[in-house]
Amino acid sequence: MPSLLHICEWVSATHFSTFIRESPYWFPIIEGIHTLGITAVVGTIAVLDLRLLGLIMKREPVSGIARQVLPWTWAGFAVMFVTGVLLSIAEAATNYYNWAFRIKLILLVLVGINPLIFHLTVYRKVDTWDLANVTPLRARAAAISSLFLWACIIVAGRLIAYVNM
Questions:
Q1: Closest Cα partner for 160 from 8, 13, 6, 31?
Q2: Has this prediction a pTM greater than 0.90?
Q3: Distance (Å, rounded) from C-alpha 63 to C-alpha 125?
Q4: Is residue 123 part of a domain?
């Protein structure tokens, strides 16, 4: 069975990977679109998180804000995911050794677990605290975790280009 390194080296040697990596246009275009996707995801999530923290839109119900921003979040996520996969394919062999890339992947898993726990627990009873200026402690903890994790993901993502091992 091939190791992960061998798989990354194989992916990196494909014509598709080489095309993206060596193109003077495609890699920067994909990276720019990836940045736009991240902006949509983090921007919409930040709106909901700041409401959960009681810092903005205190008169708006949390559920209403979530209903309005989550379609944009999912659209941004789709763009971010597809372009992230393309960027990873283009640099599969070098990303294998890149500690910033590995940290980013771990943080992405954590930032995915955070809303899963939030929606399966405290958000199930949103009707009891939907209009509260001070949301439950677990909702605020989820918001703080979300903002922190996304900030770390952005930093780790930027470091990928500057870290060689």
A1: 31
A2: yes
A3: 11
A4: yes
Total domain count, the chain? 1
| Cβ-based neighbours of 37, under 8 Å, separated by 6 or more | 76, 77, 78, 79, 80, 81, 83, 84
| 71 vs 2: CA distance, rounded Å | 39
Q: Which tens digits make up the pLDDT trace of 95-118? A: 999 999 999 999 999 999 999 999
Q: Which domain holds residue 123?
A: 4-160
Residue 165 lies in a domain: no
Q: Residue 120 gets which letter from DSSP?
A: H
Is 70 inside any structural domain? Answer: yes
Backbone angles phi, psi at 32, to 5 degrees: -65, -45
Q: Which residues contact 42 (CB under 8 A, 6 or more apart)?
A: 150, 154
Cα 39 to Cα 44: distance, rounded to the nearest angstrom: 8
Q: pLDDT of 20-73, one tens digit each?
A: 999 999 999 999 999 999 999 999 999 999 999 999 999 999 999 999 999 999
For the chain, the C-alpha Rg in angstroms (whole number) is 19
Domain membership of residue 137 (yes or no) is yes
Record the tokens describing residue 157, joined without a space: 């993502």
Which H helix or E strand runs over 79? Answer: helix 62-90
